[in-house]
């Protein structure tokens, strides 16, 4: 197939994920608390090559042997789970991305100082569940203004964001809260790496006729890349690897763009590019 392939200016592994992978490789035979990153294929590789296995719920954690090693996932875990590990004398290897740890600390301090906490994010996302556990009792989780309109928020409030969310929506929520609260502190905790990948795909999606976003289907930042690209390029596809690539994606396509989520390793990106080249 005669098609030009162009990579986004920024794509793929971010610093936090790279760090977590290295920590896992350096600590073979450990357990990870939840998936270390949102990429099932990379997790399978770590399991096969470094015997790093995953546990999740409280029961699993309770079954861990004393003095064994556990790696905390990149997006962090709720405080209660961390306490459980500490109480069991587990050797904790904290691979929580420092950007996420920063949000947890902001929320911890703010709640102790009497602030209510608004988290712009998805309540089912593990990162948000972890952050929430540090935010005290008065915490609101919202994906947009509508979710906050009927809430009784009026006092001292801080606003933080899940790291992978969109800037524009965050600003909308900040403006809304400014009107509603007597005191508002805004902490823009959207991650730079995610932003750079988002900017790059936005540009790329304007100049290609097909765009392939590679990443775990459970990865929030990958889905966000897909949504941004779709705004400009109708032929945008989200794939987890080369087996998802279909020839029909490229019908009458001359230029194909490639981007990848922050938890997508290079070996999967290479695999997809090779498949496209060999179609
Ligand atoms: S996307 Fe940003 S916050 Fe998330 S792991 Fe990567 S560097 Fe950390």
Describe the structure.
It is built from eleven helices and twelve strands. The chain is of the alpha/beta class and 279 residues long. Helices cover 42% and strands 19% of the residues. The relative contact order is 0.17. It has helices spanning 15-25, 40-50, 58-63, 79-87, 98-112, 126-132, 146-149, 167-180, 192-205, 220-232, 266-277; strands at residues 4-7, 31-33, 53-55, 69-72, 91-94, 116-120, 139-142, 156-161, 183-186, 210-214, 236-239, 255-260. It folds into three domains: 4-12 and 193-277, 3-Layer(aba) Sandwich (Cobalt-precorrin-4 Transmethylase, domain 1), CATH 3.40.1010.20; 15-96, 3-Layer(aba) Sandwich (Rossmann fold), CATH 3.40.50; 99-186, Cobalt-precorrin-4 Transmethylase, domain 1 (3-Layer(aba) Sandwich), CATH 3.40.1010.20. The strands form three sheets. A four-stranded parallel sheet has the order 1-12-10-11, sandwiched between helices. A four-stranded parallel sheet has the order 3-2-4-5, with helices on one face. β4, α4 (79-87) and β5 (91-94) form a beta-alpha-beta unit. The model has no long low-confidence stretch (mean pLDDT 94). Iron/sulfur cluster (SF4) binds next to α1, α5 and α9.
